[in-house]
Amino acid sequence: MAEKTIVVCDVCGKPATETVTIKVARGNYAKDLCTAHVTELVAGARRPRPGRPRKMTGEASAAAPKRRGRPRKTGGRKSTGRKRTATRGTAQASGSPARSAKK
Ligand SMILES: [Zn+2]
């Protein structure tokens, strides 16, 4: 009864407050950390959204619409502009000189 198991911080040796699980390619590691080192560890860490472990594609698609959506809008405007210049003049990039030359 006298024995008392004290969880100690694996970094500094102080009494640990939390046990963190680190997932690495090799496997999972458990590490006991004190409050200071937990905050230190969490400081540079990001939070994977819980409940969506299988939606790796969902994260990719979530990131994709931002990239796809903006180019589509700008691309659509540019394409319409190009069509107008294309119909008026054969030169697409130098549309304004072509107009002045025709006029
Ligand atoms: Zn510590």
Can I get a quick summary?
By secondary structure, this protein is mostly helical. The chain is 49% helix and 12% strand.
Salient structural properties:
single chain, 103 residues, mainly alpha, Wheat Germ Agglutinin (Isolectin 2), domain 1, two-stranded antiparallel sheet, 3 helices, elongated, binds zinc ion
SSE topology string: EEHHH
- Bound ligands, each once: zinc ion
Number-wise, the strands total 2
End-to-end gap? 102 Å
Largest sheet: 2 strands, antiparallel
Shape descriptor: elongated
Mean pLDDT: 73
Approximately how much beta-strand content do the residues carry?
Answer: 5-15%
Identify low-pLDDT runs: none
Known CATH architecture of the domain at 1-47 = 2-Layer Sandwich
Number of helices: 3
CATH topology of the domain at 1-47: Wheat Germ Agglutinin (Isolectin 2), domain 1
* Structural class computed from helices and strand pairing: mainly alpha
Calculate Rg over CA atoms. Answer: 30 Å
Class of the domain at 1-47 in CATH? Alpha Beta
Major beta sheet, strand line-up: 1-2
Q: What's the CATH H-level superfamily name of the domain at 1-47?
A: Lsr2, dimerisation domain
Task: Reconstruct the topology from this structure.
Layout: E1 18-23, E2 28-33, H1 35-43, H2 56-88, H3 95-102
Antiparallel strand pairs: 1-2
The protein binds zinc ion.
Task: Tell me what you see in this structure.
This protein has 103 residues and is mostly helical. The protein has a domain of 47 residues: Lsr2, dimerisation domain (Wheat Germ Agglutinin (Isolectin 2), domain 1, 2-Layer Sandwich), CATH 3.30.60. The chain has a two-stranded antiparallel sheet. Strand 1 and strand 2 form a beta hairpin. The longest helix has 33 residues. The radius of gyration is 30 Å and the shape is elongated. The termini are far apart. The structure holds zinc ion. Zinc ion binds next to helix 1.
